[in-house]
Amino acid sequence: MSNGQTAEFAPEAAPSSTSFFVEASDGTKFAVTEAACNQSVTIKDLIGTIGSNTALPFNNIDGPTMKLIIEWCEHHKDEEIWAYDYDARIGMSLPAWDLEFLEKMKDEDFEKFLRAANYLSIKKLVTYGCKKIQLMIKDKNPEQLREQFMISTDEEEEALEKKLREESEKREEEENQTTKEPGTSK
């Protein structure tokens, strides 16, 4: 395995089940059962294209995020594969295991996790992630949402732009003064 990394997550699988390896951006490789791979359209398609003799590389997903993705897929490996059906999922509630699984992540980890799930085309997981976001924003006013998601106001953005512009002008002025030769006037 590259960089001396070992398979971090060895799923408990029946001896007859086929396993594949996926490789995260940090070189960590993870064993994934075939049934769990089916949860991801992207992984399933790559297995069909690249084959099973090599680790499937994912340069845009880090090891900790990939570990969580694989854990989720292994937990749901025997469940149906979802197609996007937005209307049918509106009133759904998150199963207890999934709610607990998603709640234990920090916001910045959850964001990376949800992006990875979307990239890997794990439709059920993306839907569950969106449901978690819905629960996070439910009954909050715009100010609370700005705070929670660190969204700046127009005034804050304008102040930042002004500060950056002034700093840039100051640097430019300092550069112009240092490049002037002594005894010349410009």
- Low-confidence spans: 1-16
Structural class: mainly alpha
- CATH homologous superfamily of the domain at 19-142, by name? Potassium Channel Kv1.1, Chain A
> What's the alpha carbon Rg, rounded to whole Å?
24 Å
* Coarse morphology: flat
N→C terminal distance = 63 Å
Q: For this entry, what is the oligomeric state of its chains?
A: single chain
**Helical coverage, percent range:** 40-55%
Secondary-structure element order, N to C = EEHHEHHHHHH
In the CATH hierarchy, what is the class of the domain at 19-142? Alpha Beta
How many DSSP-defined strands?
Answer: 3
> Which architecture name of the domain at 19-142 does CATH use?
2-Layer Sandwich
Mean pLDDT: 81
Helix count, per DSSP? 8
Task: Note down, in words, how this protein is organized.
- The protein is mainly alpha-helical and 186 residues long.
- It has a domain at 19-142: 2-Layer Sandwich (Potassium Channel Kv1.1, Chain A), CATH 3.30.710.
- 52% of the residues lie in helices and 6% in strands.
- The chain has helices at residues 34-37, 41-50, 63-75, 96-103, 107-119, 123-137, 142-148, 154-179, and strands at 19-23, 29-33, 56-57.
- Strand 1 and strand 2 (29-33) form a beta hairpin.
- It comes from Caenorhabditis briggsae.
- GO terms for molecular function: cullin family protein binding.
Compact overview of the structure:
This protein has helices at residues 34-37, 41-50, 63-75, 96-103, 107-119, 123-137, 142-148, 154-179; strands spanning 19-23, 29-33, 56-57.
